[in-house]
Design a protein that fits this description.
Distance between the termini: 21 Å
Number of strands: 5
Strand content: 15-25%
Helix content: 10-25%
Number of helices: 2
Radius of gyration: 14 Å
Low-confidence stretches: none
Bound molecules: zinc ion
Shape: globular
Mean pLDDT: 80
Strand order of the largest sheet: 1-2-3
Length: 89
């Protein structure tokens, strides 16, 4: 839900990379922070369970390696973001 409105931080959007690609190993997901693809898996992406959507498993937009970097960058400004990120794993 947040992604649609958050167009301030996506400066790579011009490249129009698909968010998911199919490889011979399976589906890979784009990390919007480093711009690389990783297997859509708990090992590479944090996820949360969207109970408001019937328990849908939703992966974060950034990979695990980028997650602290990405969110530190965004919260190190003048004001803190609401800490609504319920991260598991
Ligand atoms: Zn990344």
């Amino acid at each position: 839900m947040k992604d649609q409105h958050d167009n301030k931080t996506v400066d790579w959007v011009e490249s129009k990379k698909p968010k998911h690609i199919e490889t011979e190993l399976g589906t890979e997901k784009l990390c919007i922070c480093c711009g690389d693809y990783y297997p859509l898996d708990d090992e590479f992406f944090y996820h949360r369970i969207r109970k408001d959507r019937g328990g849908v498993k939703q992966y974060e937009a950034v990979c695990k390696a980028c997650y602290p970097v990405h969110y530190n960058k965004r919260t190190s400004g003048r004001h803190k973001l609401k800490s609504k990120h319920g991260v598991q794993g």
